[in-house]
Specification:
This protein has a 6-stranded mixed β-sheet with strand order 1-2-3-4-6-5. The chain has 208 residues and is an alpha+beta fold. It has one domain. Helix content is 38%, strand content 25%.
Amino acid sequence: MDVSIRHRRRVHDGGQDAPARSSCDTAECPACTVEDVTVGSMAFYRVHLDRGRNAYWAMEEESEDLYETAQVLLDQQTGSFSEEVSEMLEYIGTDLLVMDRVTLDRQWRGHGLAVILATEAIHRLMPGCRAIACAPGITDLSSHRLKDRTEWDRVTAKIAQGWERIGFRLYRDGIYLLSPASQALEEQRGELRGRLVELGASWRAATS
């Protein structure tokens, strides 16, 4: 499941001699248009463990990243959660939701938006799931500073802290687990929504 992250903005176009800007003096400005701009994306996989096909091998066929997750969480023979993992999870669903990737354009990073938006996506996708899994890591390798191992580890740890904030916990081999029944997820969702409102207010003030 691919989720597009979009920013809705009002753009003023006063003609060739007037520069475009993202805000106007009045909401009724006739030279304004509204447009949705894609500023990031998220990718999730919903893995059905009770549909007859062995989910372990299905994940292996899909991608290397999913296969690594399957090796940690699933029983190779049955395709179900391993006995150890099963004992950790409440019986509130049957599926496994894997958060594969959360990416934001560079100018949108550094504000905690990835965690805020991913929490909303998880909340909508998790009904019927028994667990949510992710492997915190860096998807944008364009920055030269990340070629330094120390900096790589620092950024990766910061990403992991963001996911831990909403209830993800390290299980094994870099795979983090979150129960849909986690109280932390629900509590943090309210706080993160408040943070989003604050960010929106500060950005509007900066561009007014």
